[in-house]
Design a protein that fits this description.
By secondary structure, this protein is mostly beta strands. It contains no helices and twelve strands. About 0% of the residues lie in helices and about 50% in strands.
């Protein structure tokens, strides 16, 4: 997020309203209702989550595991997106997760991961990442991981 203010010989203005942006993201970028970062949603509103992979020129073709994991903070519930694009509840132990996809890194257009859900009031974290080596095991401690995180706040 960023704020802008103007400065000239007469002084400085106040800060603008906040806005969001990103600079040359390499790897995944998560969109929640077409916004990035922390997104507020009104109770009863539809929620869509999508991801885009971009600027991977030097990494194209490297075999990786593709992951999507979500956490519902209010309930302490963990979910992962399986290869059939179904959300599967799990205990939070990453060894229980399975990748959504396994294969070479590629730039992708925006892909819907969750479309038109109505979530209960609460706070949700969503991570999307790719991890090397392609072994079907989610290891968040490896140095070979690219990921992005979004927060959904339903009020």
């Amino acid at each position: 997020y960023y704020f802008v203010r103007a400065t000239n010989a007469a002084g400085a203005s106040g800060f603008s309203e906040s806005d969001y942006g990103y600079k040359a993201v390499i790897g995944p970028l998560i969109y929640v209702n077409n916004k990035v970062g922390e997104v507020d949603v009104s109770s009863g509103s539809l929620v869509s989550v999508a991801v885009e992979m971009m600027n991977l020129t030097q990494y194209l073709g490297i075999p990786v595991d593709w992951w999507c994991v979500a956490y519902a903070r209010n309930w302490g519930s963990w979910y992962y997106l399986d290869s059939a694009f179904e959300w599967v509840n799990f205990s939070g132990v990453f060894a229980e997760c399975h990748p959504a996809y396994q294969g070479g890194l590629m730039n992708t257009p925006v892909v819907e991961l969750m479309e038109g859900y109505i979530l209960p009031v609460g706070v949700y974290d969503v991570w999307f990442g790719v991890e090397y080596p392609m072994d079907g095991l989610l290891n968040i401690n490896t140095q070979y991981i690219m990921y992005n995180h979004a927060v959904i706040i339903v009020e």
